[in-house]
């Protein structure tokens, strides 16, 4: 599946709904992206883009058992496979942009407040925010580092994991898989 630049631009400012288990099912692990990219908005699949390593890293970590093509997007069966394991995906900011640096600080702070409300409502075991810069901006944690954060959000442990974007060139699928597996083990998704 491919898109022209004009087709992708037509998805600017589109929102992508959260992928969450139904409210009567537990949410064990909540992955949080910065915001939807244009490809994500076009496919309505979080972390979708041919160069995004999120799904390959989840597969390598054992969090997924079958591959998801980050270019084509998720099938209903893919979504159900994640939900049935108690895995959800959301974003700090809801608005689709070509680059995360197009977001304002206010958008990140407002999105951070919305995320904290979602976590209070759904009480995942672990929240895994993908991207240290976005975490620092959204939560005013200027000295935060990658890994588990010292302060939980209520009963939810909080991890900052590396951003899987192809722009984050110093991370590999293997290093991403290690970080994601750590959060998944803490959430009880992996043994």
Automatic annotation (TrEMBL):
Transmembrane segments: none annotated. It comes from the Bacteria. This is G/U mismatch-specific uracil-DNA glycosylase. GO terms for molecular function: pyrimidine-specific mismatch base pair DNA N-glycosylase activity; uracil DNA N-glycosylase activity. It comes from Nocardioides exalbidus. Residues 20-181 form the Uracil-DNA glycosylase-like domain. The keyword DNA damage applies. Keywords: DNA damage, DNA repair, Hydrolase. PANTHER family: G/T AND G/U MISMATCH-SPECIFIC DNA GLYCOSYLASE (PTHR12159), G_T MISMATCH-SPECIFIC THYMINE DNA GLYCOSYLASE (PTHR12159:SF9). CDD domains: UDG-F2_TDG_MUG. Coiled coil: none annotated. One of its GO terms (biological process) is base-excision repair, AP site formation. InterPro entries: MUG/TDG, Uracil-DNA_glycosylase-like, Uracil-DNA_glycosylase-like_sf.
